[in-house]
């Protein structure tokens, strides 16, 4: 009897202690919920997977805690279609009640999510990797932030590099939607001004597979091809072009020479060596911050690419911005997240490729690289730096009144 | 159709085609001839895949909407076999076999228990296609898989008249398609099993009454039809690469080919594939914005005058 | 369906179970206005009360993303259930018709940032949208009536895909891949109809109207003739009915229902893109209709609710990236193990528990359902 009573008392004491600890745990700050949206299906599925890796890396670098609050990531998937992206975002925001939203991946989705963000003034939306110019330049949303440079900014400097290599006439082959329009505009603005000529532009549907007709239309007198295709489209085109005996040098859009393309399963990548491109990322960049970032990526994701892809880097940058902002306000998201947004607006973000500031449309002003594809001793392809340009703004250095967003017909210099 | 109308329609359809061809040849002969080759080779691929589809429908009235997934399955398996063994021919065999096995399993374990319920079978194939496509993406990932052609078919064929160079591999698609077409025709018309299949297409009940094991014939047919899709997958993995989403594309192509050419007819599939390949490729080359509307007009014309397709048989 | 099976239908037709005398008389002889009087039962009242009170019982998210979306999708699926269940014609182009209505509303009304937008008043845009969609549906019907059963599925799928490519590649009118953004319902009588609760009631009103209309239509001479044509076109033709005209008219009616659903769905999304009318969605509508069951118009809405719930919450139940697998498996399970979706399960269950009860709006010939 005595031992039973002792056991009972001990149990009660233990329970009380545990309860005390438990309530102490509960008394800490609630976790901060961040929604993460990327394309995990469809043409950019591989890029979306790497984007999620990049975002997760930013969280792991902080050990999952920011300003004393635990970080809770809720993931969602889309397939590069705007309505799917908006539905997924709406669920994250209205059902799962996230505080901050990071995403989406592709250009058209970005425009649709920006429109949605205007209906949710108390949530902060940060871009994933969508790079269409119109997202922040036309009817910007007061709570949509983009810490990555857009598709047009990524191509700055490429026009001059092309002319330096002697390509005076080029043909453009690009996918037919908002992001490639921005990329082509970024390239042609400089290229045309410096005297280059673009006699033919071929816009192909996203996800189209048969490039034989486009290849047949390549005129004999162009010096190079500007190829702004992504994902599976790029691989198909490269293969079919080489099989058809094509040998013109290529100028790449940013996602054409991203690591997910340089690493596709198959052999025919030799034709990519020597391709110049414009991008916010350069695999062989020498700066210590970049090397540390690559090492961190490889350590955390042994099943990832040899070097982070464009999507991985850009998602990392945007998630890091979200977390740095939270730290700056010490996790205070009260009062409609006003302080948080002010912190974001004023922040100078340190990224592995340089500093990023925001302009008046909450669009990033950052660094762009002109790169060239080379092969290393193990046979892997990577991008080496030809030129680094800092403080590129959205109007590419032109006065805003003169700046026209890229479309199918603008700019034009046949 | 009376003789007058036959001549009338031949002129109405043929005359513009001839004029446009003449103009095309005159304007840019290289583009015209390359496009011709492109369309015929593409038609070969479509024919290989669609022939399996039409075989299954013709005999079993089963619209196998999982046909595209079988294409994908065969393609992936062929890719890995080629990587492992280095042999393209082995990859072809592996792709065919894998798809045939899965098709056999589907017929024996599911469709055999739903005789005559055409719509229900179709719905099951829709469900299966969603499941198979997602399982493949889970297991293999979303990365693009581009198979390389065998070394003896690699690279361009140079020194050709008018067009200068053309992809060797792509050019071989044409003889491959013809060989498979002839083999299929021989199988259907000169073998005992083929005779039973043709009899079954005409009258299933009679075939059973004649003492043939109808289930076994069905299983064989489904396996062959599925195998053809897998074979097409391996061939397409080189030309068009393997990526999630290919299954829908090839399924739709098969659908249009079979609608135009006629259900249950292999020759019809060949004709339909040729028409569809020509329309799509010439459209892409000369009027890329509306190439598909072009093909749709052809589909409408065929349906308006021959609702069962050019060589279709009444149900 | 093969000629052999129709032959079979003509020869083997068992005598129908006689409906109770008063119901037979009621359907055949009653004056038109009384034809509509469906006996209102207790479960009707309960369901209606629940639907009306729904926004007050849940969060705005549920009201909008689950409730309103299910009602709009259910309306589009209702058009397919009507066409397939009563008319025996399974058309995969219903979402195409809905998409056409959405695009027309976007083009004629105040839409997008780019592309053609005429900026006409909303009621005019909606009217024009529905009219054009009905015309398109009639055209599709005219193309498809020469075919039967499985052929119809394939041909309507091909037509749907052709429209998808047209919308994808045309920039002057459809604005290509971007589609039309910012297509919103108007602000009327001081209420912004895109807010969760007003939009839900708008969708509910349209859905109820559609449902009651279909139930009514099935008891009219047209509806009965349609069901007769479904069961035995040769006999109906011999009786003097114009089979083709009836079928095309059925397509047109289904098109009108799908058009209203399409306008609602476009307003729900706030945009319409080629993706909205792609193969995925064409098949999704079929999945919804089959899931719910084609024996009664309510099946369309049941299927839509299950679909929307799966679409939103499957991602929480299983690994984020595998929700397509979940939808596919659920669909397979229902098709494999039930003859007619959820309603079929329900019927089998209640048949086991009680004796035969009549009262389905369309009487299938000797218990034969669409699943032949």
Distinctive features:
heterotrimer, A: 414 residues, alpha/beta, Rossmann fold, 2 domains, nine-stranded mixed beta sheet, six-stranded mixed beta sheet, 14 helices, 15 strands, globular, B: 315 residues, mainly alpha
Could you please describe the fold and organization of this structure?
The complex is a heterotrimer of chains A (414), B (315) and C (372). Helices cover 40% and strands 21% of the residues of chain A. Chain A has 414 residues and is α/β, with parallel strands linked by helices. In chain A, helix 2 packs parallel to helix 13 and helix 13 packs across helix 14. About 3% of the residues of chain A have low confidence. By secondary structure, chain C is mainly α. Chain C has a domain of 218 residues. Helix content of chain C is 67%, strand content 2%. At the B-C interface, helix 5, helix 10 and helix 12 of B face helix 1, helix 7, helix 12 and helix 14 of C.
List unreliable stretches of 5+ residues of chain A: 14-27
CATH architectural label of the largest domain in chain A = 3-Layer(aba) Sandwich
Order of helices and strands of chain A: HEHEEHEHEHEHHEHEHEHEHEHHHEEEE
Number of strands of chain A: 15
């Amino acid at each position: 009897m005595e031992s039973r009573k002792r056991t009972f008392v001990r149990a009660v004491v233990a329970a009380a202690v545990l309860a005390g600890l438990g309530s102490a745990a509960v008394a800490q700050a609630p976790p901060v919920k961040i929604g993460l949206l990327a394309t995990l299906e469809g043409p950019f599925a591989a890029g979306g997977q790497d984007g999620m890796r990049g975002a997760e890396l930013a969280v792991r670098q902080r050990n999952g805690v920011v300003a004393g609050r635990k970080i809770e990531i809720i993931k969602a998937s889309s397939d590069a279609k705007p309505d799917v992206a908006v539905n997924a975002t709406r669920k994250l925001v209205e059902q799962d009640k996230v505080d901050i939203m990071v995403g989406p991946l592709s250009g058209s989705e970005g425009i649709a999510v920006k429109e949605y963000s205007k209906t949710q003034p108390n949530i902060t939306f940060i871009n994933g990797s969508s790079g269409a110019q119109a997202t922040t330049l036309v009817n910007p949303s007061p709570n949509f932030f983009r810490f990555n440079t857009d598709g047009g900014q990524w191509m700055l400097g490429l026009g001059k590099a092309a002319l330096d290599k002697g390509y005076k006439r080029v043909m453009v082959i690009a996918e037919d939607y908002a992001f490639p329009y921005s990329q082509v505009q970024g390239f042609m603005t400089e290229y045309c001004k410096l005297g280059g000529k673009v006699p033919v532009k071929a816009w192909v549907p996203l996800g189209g597979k048969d490039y034989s007709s486009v290849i047949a239309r390549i005129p004999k007198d162009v010096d190079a091809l500007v190829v702004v295709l992504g994902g599976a489209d790029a691989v198909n085109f490269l293969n079919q072009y080489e099989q058809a005996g094509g040998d013109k040098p290529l100028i790449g859009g940013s996602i054409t020479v991203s690591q997910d393309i340089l690493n596709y399963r198959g052999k025919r990548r030799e034709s990519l060596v020597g391709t110049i491109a414009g991008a916010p990322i350069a695999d062989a960049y020498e700066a210590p911050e970049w090397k540390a970032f690559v090492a961190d990526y490889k350590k955390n994701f042994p099943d990832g690419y040899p070097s982070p892809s464009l999507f991985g880097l850009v998602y990392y940058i945007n998630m890091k911005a979200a977390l740095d902002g939270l730290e700056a306000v010490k996790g205070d998201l009260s009062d409609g997240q006003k302080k948080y947004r002010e912190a974001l607006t004023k922040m100078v973000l340190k990224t592995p490729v340089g500093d990023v500031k925001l302009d008046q449309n909450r669009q990033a002003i950052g660094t762009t690289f002109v790169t060239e594809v080379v092969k290393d001793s193990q046979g892997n392809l990577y991008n080496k730096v030809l030129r680094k340009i800092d403080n590129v703004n959205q109007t590419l250095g032109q006065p805003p009144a003169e700046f026209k967003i890229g479309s199918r017909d603008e700019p034009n210099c046949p | 159709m009376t003789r007058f109308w036959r001549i009338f329609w031949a002129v109405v359809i043929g005359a513009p085609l001839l004029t446009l061809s003449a103009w095309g040849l005159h304007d840019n002969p290289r583009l015209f001839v390359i496009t011709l080759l492109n369309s015929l080779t593409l038609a070969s691929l479509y024919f290989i895949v669609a022939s399996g589809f039409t075989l299954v429908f013709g005999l079993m009235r089963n619209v196998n909407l999982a046909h595209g997934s079988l294409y994908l399955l065969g393609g992936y398996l062929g890719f890995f076999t080629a990587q492992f063994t280095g042999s393209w021919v082995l990859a072809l065999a592996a792709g065919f076999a894998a798809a045939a096995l899965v098709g056999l399993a589907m017929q024996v374990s599911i469709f055999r228990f739903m005789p005559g319920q055409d719509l229900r079978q179709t719905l099951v194939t829709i469900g299966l296609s969603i499941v198979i496509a997602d399982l493949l993406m889970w297991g293999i990932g979303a990365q693009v898989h581009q198979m390389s052609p065998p070394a003896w078919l690699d690279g361009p064929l140079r020194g050709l008249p008018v067009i200068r160079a053309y992809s060797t591999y792509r050019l071989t698609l044409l003889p491959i398609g013809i060989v498979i077409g002839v083999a299929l025709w021989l199988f259907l018309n000169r073998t005992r099993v083929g005779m039973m299949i043709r009899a079954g297409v005409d009258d299933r009940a009679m075939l059973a009454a004649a003492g043939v094991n109808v289930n076994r014939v069905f299983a064989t047919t489904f396996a062959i039809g599925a195998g053809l899709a897998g074979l097409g997958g391996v061939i397409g993995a080189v030309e068009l690469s393997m990526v999630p989403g290919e299954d829908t594309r090839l399924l739709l192509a098969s659908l249009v080919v079979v609608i135009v050419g006629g259900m249950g007819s292999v020759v019809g599939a060949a004709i339909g594939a040729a028409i569809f390949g020509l329309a799509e490729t010439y459209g892409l080359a000369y009027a890329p914005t509306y190439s598909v509307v072009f093909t749709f007009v052809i589909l409408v014309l065929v349906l308006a005058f021959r609702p069962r397709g050019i060589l279709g048989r009444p149900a | 369906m093969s000629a052999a099976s129709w032959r079979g239908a003509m020869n083997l037709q068992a005598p129908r179970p006689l409906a109770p005398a008063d119901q037979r008389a009621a359907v055949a002889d009653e004056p038109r206005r009384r034809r509509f009087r469906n006996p209102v039962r207790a479960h009707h009242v309960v369901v209606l009360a629940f639907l009306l009170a729904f926004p007050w019982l849940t969060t705005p998210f549920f009201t909008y993303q689950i409730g309103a979306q299910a009602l709009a999708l259910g309306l589009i699926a209702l058009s397919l259930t009507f066409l397939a269940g009563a008319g025996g014609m399974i058309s995969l182009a219903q979402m195409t018709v809905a998409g056409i209505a959405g695009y027309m509303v976007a083009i004629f009304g105040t839409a997008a940032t780019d592309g053609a937008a005429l900026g006409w008043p909303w009621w005019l845009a909606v009217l024009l949208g529905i009219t054009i969609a009905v015309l398109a549906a009639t055209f599709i019907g005219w193309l498809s009536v020469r075919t039967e059963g499985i052929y119809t599925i394939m041909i309507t799928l091909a037509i749907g895909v052709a429209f998808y490519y047209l919308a994808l590649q045309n920039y002057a009118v459809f604005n290509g891949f971007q589609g039309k953004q910012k297509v919103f319902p108007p602000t009327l009588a001081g209420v912004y109809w895109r807010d969760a609760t007003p939009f839900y009631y708008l969708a509910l009103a349209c859905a109820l109207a559609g449902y009651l209309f279909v139930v009514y239509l099935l008891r009219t001479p047209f509806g009965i003739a349609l069901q007769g044509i479904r069961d035995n076109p040769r006999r109906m033709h011999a009786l003097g009915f114009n089979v083709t005209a009836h079928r095309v008219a059925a397509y047109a009616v289904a098109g009108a229902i799908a058009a209203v659903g399409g306008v609602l769905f476009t307003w729900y999304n706030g945009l319409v893109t080629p993706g909205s009318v792609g193969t995925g969605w064409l098949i999704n509508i079929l999945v919804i209709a089959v899931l719910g069951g084609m024996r009664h118009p309510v099946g369309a809405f049941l299927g839509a609710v299950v679909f929307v719930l799966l679409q939103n919450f499957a991602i929480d139940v299983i690994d984020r990236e595998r929700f397509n697998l979940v939808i596919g498996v659920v669909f397979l399970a229902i098709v494999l193990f039930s003859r007619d979706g959820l309603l079929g399960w329900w019927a089998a269950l209640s048949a086991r528990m009680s004796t035969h009860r009549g009262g389905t709006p369309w009487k299938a010939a000797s218990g034969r359902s669409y699943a032949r």
